[in-house]
TrEMBL record:
Protein name in the entry: Terpene cyclase/mutase family member
Keyword set includes Repeat: yes
InterPro entries associated with the record: SQ_cyclase_C (IPR032696), SQ_cyclase_N (IPR032697), Squalene_cyclase (IPR018333), Terpenoid_cyclase/PrenylTrfase (IPR008930)
Enzyme Commission number(s) of this protein: 5.4.99.-
Similarity comment text for this entry: Belongs to the terpene cyclase/mutase family.
Keyword Transmembrane: no
A GO MF term: lanosterol synthase activity
One Pfam family linked to the record: SQHop_cyclase_N
GO cellular component: lipid droplet
Source organism of this protein record: Collybia nuda
Amino acid sequence: MYEPLNIGHSASEPFTDYSRWRLLVNDGGRHTWHYLRTDEECAKWPQNSIDKFWLGMKTNLPELPPAQNPMEAARNGYTFYKNLQAHDGHWPGEYGGPMFLLPGFVIGSYVSEMGFKDEERREMIRYLMNRAHPDDGGWGIHVEGHSTVFGTGLNYAALRILGVDAEHPVCVRARATLHKLGGAAAIPSWGKFWLSLLNVYDWEGNNPVPPELWVLPDWLPFHPHRWWIHTRTVYVPMSFLYGVRFKAEENDLILSLREELYVQDYYTIDWPAQRNNVCKADLYAPHSALFDTINIVLSAYEQCILPPFRRAGVEKAYELIVLEDENTEYQTLGPVSKMFNLVARAYREGPDSYAYKQHKLKRQDFMWVGKDGMMACGTNGSQLWDVGFITQALVETGLAKLEENKDSLLKALEWLNDSQIQQDPQHHHTSYRHSTKGAWGFSTKEQGYTVSDCTGEGLKAVMYLQNHLDFTPKLVSERRMCDAVDLMLTLQNPNGGFASYELIRGPKWLEWLNPAEVFGDIMTEYCYPECTTSVITSLAIFRKHYPYYRAHDIDRTIRTAITYLHGSQKPEGGWVGSWGICFTYATQFALESLSLVGETYETSEVSRRACEFLIGKQRKDGGWGESYKSCEQGAWVEHAETQVVQTCWAVMSLMYARYPHPEPIARAVQMVMSRQLPDGSWAQEAIEGVFNKTCAIAYPNFKFSFPIWMLGKAHGYMADLKTSSLS
Ligand code: LAN
């Protein structure tokens, strides 16, 4: 599909003219990058600070008077960050990190004959070149990880599809690493699947993915509608594509990849023997004996399938794919299911279909051009999440009241108003969806998935803006806030905790069926301290403003949620984070929750232990630094460098707990202030987020929202401590 490209050895300079890229923000926060071909177009649509900042170009924003105290530093921070707010009120941002997503976009598009524009493919190539591991030229599961077969095999195939020659030094080096790791035969199951679609891995090398599970009765404890939503929305199209054994038509590139990816002769590989062959460097969650046994049985079934049963399963899976596409306007829940759905729809309905065109249009929402090239993102953005934090930061610090910030807050409120989901999904029960009426999702309203904590943070942000400030209109009605509350109340689990998108629907033992090898805890929902906190803190604030609405239910929910939080504290004093790194992240949330019921350092053993735990991790320079490896291991792993964002989380924790000693806080504040740049911004440091235990993911807007929040709050906090120690 792509002409071979003559690519130089260095990827440090852009392969396209960076002054021609523009970020288009429209339709409720969708953001897509466009390359302008002519000077006239460029003159009509000049590059703004948002484009320049994210492209890594000079923004030329002015130097600010040096901050004399934490509040001035926070104010300078926002003076800068305000320039990155889009016209519709939200803060667009890059959401990269995982290194197994771009190959899905490249391979999925290739096998569906859906091209990328020339500038896009050039910048994707550059991105992959820039992300190749400096030590060995391979790729890992995420940008900071060690090279694995999953990362290296898939990204190598992507580079080749995009037109890079097999003898280009980047390919030569990556191939050597892949071969050293044992070659693509030992790629984990999701990699086997992508390579099978590309027709460079035999379907016989995959464990069965039977679509028949969909036609089994819903009450079965292992029915896939009980799985964690991401796992099941990936499994839906996978089971369809497996059922029809989709594979791309052979061509020269495919024949050549069959030679390049393996250490052995492709045509002599014993494929069934590869089903459980996974390279050690990749392995995080080895198969259970139960899963291996089930696979033996299912493999036997594959030899004698019942055609009507298979057909029914394939049709049911296809129906679910269509329902998901329609529920989400073709955004789909996430980037993996997006590309599997796209391949399935392209296969069934062809390139002239509406589905094909819509998928192509929305594919763009996952692509992002950063300073190192074009990447694929973890979702179609983190819009709500970023608006939620910065608006709360501004209100809590008092920066919201400054005349200079009012317009920006009004715009943010408009965005929050527009992004609340006001109906249940179009296909609600037929697609096994939880309600959505009253929810906020993680990205946009169009994507349309309830997330418990995003609803919490969205509602909090609205209440802060509408009820704590005197200049804002009441755009979100009381009724709509009650809808959000009603929805959150449906999401509490029997142990008091809140999970991510839904209630926990399946038994814990489903984890024994985890097929993915590279991720942990993905088969069912779990309760998370982070999600629990966002929900109950928003309920508590709501209760203050509207004390008569479902007061009893709210009280009970908060009470039982606190019990869950007590129970999930680690003996050392912290909480393990699942969505941010790691203890510093989750402990911040847990202590916020505890403060709400009056549990602080002085009054609660739980809170005190948490503070002591954090204080024990403070570094000589006053900051904190935790590696993403903490999330893999469930135990604190120190980062080589102190991290601004984690330092802010730690200090926020101490302040929530009303930690009485000013000195550690003052040192941390000094550290964060010392890293502020003359224009008020902070430099990007290590990656901030994580998911499924092993995969790091970037939240680059955190380096603005949390320092602004922490510094502004610490300013008042330290003054309070002084007065209380004087009195
Ligand atoms: C996210 C991003 C946001 C995150 C929070 C809101 C922070 C969290 O508190 C709840 C869970 C949620 C919504 C979340 C779930 C898993 C996601 C969607 C991601 C980490 C972003 C990418 C990830 C998704 C699973 C990536 C695709 C990979 C697969 C394994 C399917």
